[in-house]
Write a structure and sequence with these properties.
Blueprint (H helix, E strand, L loop, with lengths): L3 E4 L2 E4 L4 E7 L8 E7 L6 E6 L6 E3 L7 E6 L4 E6 L8 E8 L15 E2 L3 E6 L1
Parallel strand pairs: 2-11
Antiparallel strand pairs: 1-3, 3-8, 4-5, 4-9, 5-6, 7-8, 9-10, 9-11
């Protein structure tokens, strides 16, 4: 069992930056692929970014490529999402998720992830 706790959300003006963190419990964090998803009001949850074990591979939704960076620190059991050049359309609740299956590719489908955090609100004002 893995527990995930996100932090770092908040209110920021368009063009600003935020760094989200997701701290995981347990001693096997390094075995998990990790992902960030978001859900805006009235919209379905969507994949944002993912990273495999040992940071072997990363993937991003097209809307955030070049602006967001996912990274992980296995010594701290933490995955990060650095978000730069934020836009109002980035406003959403952001969730981190863990995939316990050994994989060398990033899964973009939410149901393939086994554990989820409670989410952190990101609001970007225009």
């Amino acid at each position: 069992q893995v527990q995930l706790v996100e932090s770092g959300g908040g209110l920021v003006q368009a063009g600003g930056s935020l760094r989200l963190s997701c701290a995981a419990s347990g001693r096997t964090f390094s075995n998990y692929a990790m992902g960030w998803f978001r859900q805006a009001p009235g919209k379905e949850r969507e994949f944002v970014a993912g990273i495999t074990r040992s940071a072997g591979s990363t993937a991003y939704v097209d809307a955030v490529k070049g602006r967001f960076t996912i990274s992980r620190d296995d010594a701290k059991n933490t995955v990060y999402l650095q978000m730069n050049s934020l836009k109002p359309e980035d406003t959403a609740v952001y969730y981190c998720a863990a995939d316990r299956n050994p994989t060398t590719v990033v899964f973009t489908s939410g149901p393939l992830y086994d554990y989820w955090g409670q989410g952190t609100q990101v609001t970007v004002s225009s």
